[in-house]
Design brief:
Elements: H1 2-26, H2 32-54, H3 63-84, H4 89-96, H5 99-111, H6 117-136, H7 142-165, H8 171-190, H9 200-225, H10 228-231, H11 237-250, H12 256-279
């Protein structure tokens, strides 16, 4: 029963994030910093509301590391949104999911964690997927690829910072810092390139925060309800949702090589989750 509930939460999360990704793709003419601003500002309604309602100290206990986490998150999110303008949305999302691999490498370097030999094989498999995407799929934009890879590296760093924070901070405090910093950075950097939204674009921009918040909320509930090695693989359904949205809404074309590269990246990450869960029993 608990597993079914966890999977339900994760599927809702993946659908919410897929919707957010598609909206970003639709707003291709809007500056990425402006999208970061709206995505973050509209989430503050939920995060501040929750913290105030529950009486949780907004500033937290570890202000310095919370700010660092927020800045790293802003860089990752901004570069990812920028990459969607150059890549098919499904490809961008797949490449962003390299973040756990970079997180694993950072964990070895900075936290002296152990990675089993077979995990390195899965990591290599994922990077071969990237090489297939770039080397054999002529549709892949090099600049977009560089942007999303840097976004993945930065996101991997965020994972390590969150691990360092541990349970010393409430999860919503961590998210709230991220949203506040992203709102400030996105707002300031979008001033010179501001594009006035028209009609439904206002609704779409504000909906980014709603989808982002509920995606994050349901993902958290999924991990709280079920075991990580059972729930985490379901998260990659986001790629399937996003690819389908890209096909039907934007007429995006995915070649055999692009689908093979995506399958290798996601497949290696799912194998890594199962193997890690087995080794840690």
């Amino acid at each position: 029963m608990a597993l079914k509930k966890a999977i339900k939460h994760m599927l809702i999360s993946t659908l919410a994030f897929a919707c957010m990704n598609v909206i970003v793709k639709y707003l291709v003419h809007v500056n990425a910093f402006q999208i970061v601003f709206f995505r973050s500002a509209s989430s503050l309604f939920f995060t501040f509301g929750f913290l105030l309602k529950e009486g949780i100290p907004i500033l937290g206990n570890n202000k310095k590391i919370l700010i660092i986490r927020g800045l790293a998150g802003v860089i990752s999110m901004t570069l990812f949104f920028m990459s969607i303008k150059y890549l098919s949305v499904g490809t961008a999302v797949s490449l962003r999911y390299l973040a756990p691999i970079f997180a694993g490498i950072f964990a070895v370097i900075f936290m002296k964690e152990k990675i089993w030999p077979l995990q390195w094989l899965f990591f290599i498999m994922a990077f071969v997927g990237v090489l297939i995407l770039k080397g054999l799929d002529s549709q892949i934009n090099t600049f977009g690829l560089i942007l999303v890879l840097i976004a993945s590296v930065t996101s991997g760093l965020v994972y390590i910072i969150i691990t360092k924070i541990g349970k010393s901070e409430h999860p919503v405090v961590v998210v709230n810092y991220f949203m506040v910093i992203a709102t400030l950075v996105g707002g300031v950097l979008s001033i010179k390139n501001w594009v006035n939204p028209e009609g439904i674009e206002w609704l779409l921009l504000f909906s980014l925060g709603v989808f982002g918040y509920y995606g994050q909320l349901n993902m958290t509930k999924a991990f709280q309800t079920g075991k990580t090695n059972q729930v985490a693989p379901v998260k990659y359904v986001e790629v399937i949702f996003t690819v389908l949205f890209g096909l039907f809404l934007f007429n995006e074309v995915y070649t055999f090589w692009s689908l093979l590269g995506i399958a290798m990246i996601i497949g290696s990450l799912i194998l890594n989750v199962f193997y890690k869960g087995h080794m840690e029993k």
